[in-house]
Amino acid sequence: MSKDAILGEIRRGLKRGPLPEDQAMALRARLAAHPRHLIPARSRVPRPEQLALFVRNVEKEYGTVAHVAGLADVPAAIADYLAAQNLPTDFAMAPHPELQALPWHLRPMLQMRVGRAQPTDLVSVQHGYAAVAETGTLVLPAAPERPTTLNLLSDTAIVVLRASRVVGAYEEAWDLLRAERNDPVSNGFMPRNVMLVTGPSRSADIESTLELGAHGPRRLHVVLVDDDPAAS
């Protein structure tokens, strides 16, 4: 069903026609302005504290973080994590140019399949678009170079994230996405979906007992590339 058909059904349910032009103009102006909501003071801190806040919040939500000095150190960090967790050395990896350019040959035991995750994949490696310090949340928009299945199907999700892409508040993450999608292909439209991931999947619905991996990955590991001089 098209968007116009859906909106038409809603109007018929409300027993009204299109909005008067003055109301429609007010709504368009509000959408174009991207108004700010209440931003927690905890995210309004100096840059080093912002990065520390992000790490604390990831760990508070049962995720883990490993710092690396540069992108070249990512394969070793992933190999070390897999060994420490007694996990297999094969994984599905996002077809992102930055990931594919890493020196994987330095860790020949690692075996990757580039593309979407399959239900049988135990480990996935995703490229992090951005993250929000105030809650320790990863921002993962759907894109050909970032398949959404990598965020959902594997038991262990590893996300490679640049420290320079950690922002303080959610509003700043949306600003980043809008600015960087202002191109002839997308014409500024939002991706098909944007996943906001805070820690591994979990639920306490049954007898208030926390169960990790309820609806997605049981482990979430962030490899944080320390590329932001302002954070040191």
Quick synopsis:
The chain contains 6 helices and 12 strands.
Question: How would you describe this structure to a colleague?
Answer:
The strands form three sheets. The chain has a six-stranded parallel beta sheet with strand order 1-12-7-4-2-3, sandwiched between helices. The protein has a four-stranded mixed beta sheet with strand order 8-5-6-9. Strands 10-11 form a two-stranded antiparallel sheet. The model has no long low-confidence stretch (mean pLDDT 90). 28% of the residues lie in helices and 22% in strands. The protein has two domains: 1-33, no CATH class; 45-231, Rossmann fold (3-Layer(aba) Sandwich). The protein has 232 residues and is α/β, with parallel strands linked by helices. The protein is globular, with a radius of gyration of 20 Å. The chain has six helices and twelve strands.
Spell the H/E element sequence.
HHHEHEHEEEEEEHEEEE
What helical percentage do the residues reach? 25-40%
Q: pLDDT average, as an integer?
A: 90
CATH fold-level name of the largest domain: Rossmann fold
The first-to-last residue Cα distance is 51 Å
